[in-house]
Amino acid sequence: MIARDLTALVRARLKDYPAVGLVGPRQTGKTTLARTLSPVYFDLEQPAERIRLDLQWEALLQQRKLVVLDEAQAWPEVFPRLRGAIDAERKRPGRFLLLGSVSPSLMRHVSESLAGRLGLVELAPLLCSELPAVPLAVRWLRGGFPEGGVAGGGRFPQWQLDYLTLLAQRDLPVWGLPAKPAVTDRLLRMTAAVHGQIWNASQVGQSLGLSYHTVNSYVDFLEGAFLLRRLPPWLPNLRKRLVRSPRIFWRDSGLLHALLGVREEGELLRQPWVGASWEGFVIGQVVEFLAARGATVAPHYFRTTDGYEVDLVFKLGRRVWAVEVKLTSSPEQAEFARFNAAADLSGADRRVLVAQVAETVFNGRSGIASLPGLLELLAKEIP
Q1: What is the DSSP track for 53-83?
Q2: Structure letter (DSSP) for residue 147
Q3: pLDDT, tens digit, 9 for 90 and up, residues 266-313
Q4: What are the structural domains, with CATH classification, of the chain?
Q5: Can you say whether residue 317 is alpha, beta or left, with left for phi > 0 and alpha for psi between -120 and 50 degrees?
Q6: For the whole model, what pTM was predicted?
């Protein structure tokens, strides 16, 4: 079994809260992780499991083991019960672990019944730091879903396409997305086509025959279902004119590549959008690496209208980090100089240009690093 970086954070939250919510996409290993923490497990999508939980409820409240409730949002009736049980012994931590595959649905019930009683953590697909034996290029191409071929096997990209088809036809409508499956499928493909670009809901809406308000509401839902990430602009107090629209990224590179018809590394490297794919991959690895260690950051990008830009800007502790991503093994001095100028405008204290280099060079304020090298630098800075 692959050790997950998030395990220590989940254990820490269970020491602080009566209940912890472990959320994330389907098939990322939430159930596997939960079962390493407790054998007391109920899958609430199954009617028989709901009956079993109902019959055993009083006995469960008396025992001292962690109770795992999988797909908790599928049975809303459990949330008032949880609130009553927690309030009866408010100071007793580590009683319930709730698993959920869709954030909006789960969070609605949490806000109604468990506000202040539950700590929330998110399990992403497998990170590079969790797969040290897998070449970085393979992880980038195939994404991080355990069953999607990242650790071997020939399931990529068919597994990813089947995964998205089931989401569009079954899960997303059940979770509350009002779009028809055919519309959802087209929207998924269109967002893949604009991966890494400035988000233009009106343009996408025209292609789908929908208003930009409707498109934005659908994208909000896809964000909450852990498929997409909208990166807002970093807006320091400058006299320069800044780009103020968000950029949109697919969170898992394997899903992105499957939608865009890429099957192997050589084919990926020939695509005109390969740089945007690599950029989104690096951004996701940085954000999710930090989150797995309890350092949740708010990722942004920075761009002026006259062309100064930084791919990723975030605050870690008291420092502002600027990260520029280049798909090259030999970045030119002019590229680093322009990045430094943009980082100055963004107000960054730390700035790193990520490239396919073998050695990390960092002087404490700026430098060039590989993706693993950047993650090592950030690990030392986590408060």
Answers
A1: HHHHHHHHHHS-SPEEEETGGG-TTHHHHHH
A2: T
A3: 999 999 999 999 999 999 999 999 999 999 899 999 999 999 999 999
A4: 7-122 (3.40.50.300), 128-277 (1.10.10), 289-381 (3.40.1350)
A5: left
A6: 0.95
